[in-house]
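User: I'm new to structure prediction. If I give you an amino acid sequence, what do you actually give back? Let's try with this one:
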Amino acid sequence: MGTITTFRTEKVLLGEKQIPANAYYGVQTQRGKDSPGSKDKTDFQQ
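Assistant: Good question. You get back a string of structure tokens that encode the predicted 3D arrangement of the chain. For your 46 residues, that looks like this:
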């Protein structure tokens, strides 16, 4: 069976973004990870 991931919604001036609930980072880091120009797609969750 797959794992179920829950999300929290963070709101900033650029809008809302879904962040994994167990993540220690915020919306700015998530936007960087999702950016097409991002070279490092490291998973920041540990």
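You can read the tokens as a compact description of the fold. Here is one thing that stands out. Residues 5 and 44 are 15 Å apart (CA to CA).
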